[in-house]
From TrEMBL:
Gene Ontology terms describing biological process: protein import into nucleus
Domain of life: Eukaryota
Protein name as catalogued: Importin subunit alpha
Keyword set, alphabetical order: Protein transport, Repeat, Transport
Pfam family, one: Arm
A GO term, aspect molecular function: nuclear import signal receptor activity
GO cellular component, one term: cytoplasm
Annotated family: Belongs to the importin alpha family.
UniProt cross-references to InterPro entries, sorted A to Z: ARM-like, ARM-type_fold, Armadillo, Importin_alpha
Protein species of origin: Diversispora eburnea
Amino acid sequence: MTLHTEKSTAEEDSDIIEFLNRKLANLSVASDAAEVLGKNDDGLPICEVSMLLPQYAHAIYNALHSPVRQLRLAAVVRLRKYLSLQNVDERVDNVLELNIIPLLIEFLETYNDNLLQYETAWIITNIAAGSTQHTQVLVAGGVTQHLIKVLTTSTNIEVQTQIIWALGNIAGDGAVFRDIILSAGVLDPLLYILTHYDRYDYMAVRITVWATANMCRGCRCSDPSWSLITPAFPILGNMVQLNDPEIIADACWGMSRILNGTHKHREHALVSDSSLCRRLVQLLCEESLSSTVHLPVLRTLVNIASGAEKQTQAVIDAGALTVLTSSFLTIKNLTLRRDACLAVSNVAAGTYKQVEAVLTEPKLLESVVALLWDNDMKVVKEACWVLSNSTSLHDPGHIHIILQHNIISSLIHHLRNPSTPCEILNKILDTLVNILSVGDVPGTDTLPESHNEYSVRLASSGVVEALIETWNNAGEGDKIKEKVLGLLGRWFYDYLPRNEHSDAVEDDGIDIASIEERVSRMSIMGGVDVF
């Protein structure tokens, strides 16, 4: 197997999905939401909003179909307030039982009544905040096309904002709904608003940025719809220049999603200079911002660094390594700590000079080595990736710097631990291969036998015993076993424990005899290059 450096884009974790606001109900109920609704003006029965349905479904249905505008509006307002209470799913079920989707579309296109349009869009927003089945009812009923039509024809900002909110909820319900909306051309009016943000109030801009970010959710570089969302990237980049934390956070989520998966398609270089990276690094330095802002900012930097050489260099030039070292590699927040390490590993997967930048950044490598002892295996995994990537160029100078930081003891610890995840073991073994590959010294006239300057050093540190334990801990057929045998056979065959008769023996339950037999057979056959 040929070793190679790897970069990774960061996925959204299940433990932060709630924060990501996939779907948002508009719960901004007016102060009279809990009022007792009377017959004063509209003739509708007296009831509290929470009891509107199903008890008074017949009265509401009749009011919605009334030729009297005031009565229709009153019924729509009551439904909106009803949907703005808790237990959204149950309330949406009750509203959909009225079979009023065609009527909502009709109200939505009542261009001479902005208030009715607005209240109707609000109802649709909260229906779309329910379950996927609820969203499916809206889409199947043709609501999305009419939402986009009104969005592009209405001149009322409040109506536009509420429609954008509804579309954001629909797009957040999955790739199928997202692609339906994107294919209908929804992004153009959204980007127009963001391009001319100074003409709109901040609420409109906030909702539009959030909805745009939702349109980017789950759309990877390899997806056909990816080309539809890439025009949003530079405009979202402009949004992070604003001083609104909500706008900054959502803009960064959008950019990080657009960049997701681009590490496998490095021809797509969306970051053309370091100005965006400088702003992102500046935001990381602002202690007044919470982790809910720092996380998407850092996630965007991680995914930028996963791209082409120019993008990775932009991250370095912006001073990201210094800030990551001083503020994030040692931070208590687990997700931020892990993502900081992931950003470093992406830079370390770059060119010679980029690896050099990682290894020479004061205290950076020291912090990464400390993370090898972290209590969270996700953090340990990223730290192992840093070491594997930093050694992958097989540069003697790089190896020398890394070995000065006493990494071997921590690697041995994880090799010996039977609960160490396979992905971590693989990266540790890759790192050892990288180091030992540099240490190979060919034979000379005075010293005919070829040797390895690092084999003795690692063997004396306990690496051989740790590898044997790793081999025994691995299950039958596990590829880890073959990688361990490759290491032992190529660099440590002479260091396998033997008794005085030169036969391998079992020691403390470790099946040395079996390993020695397989390694000996492999050596007789000329060796097996498993790396």
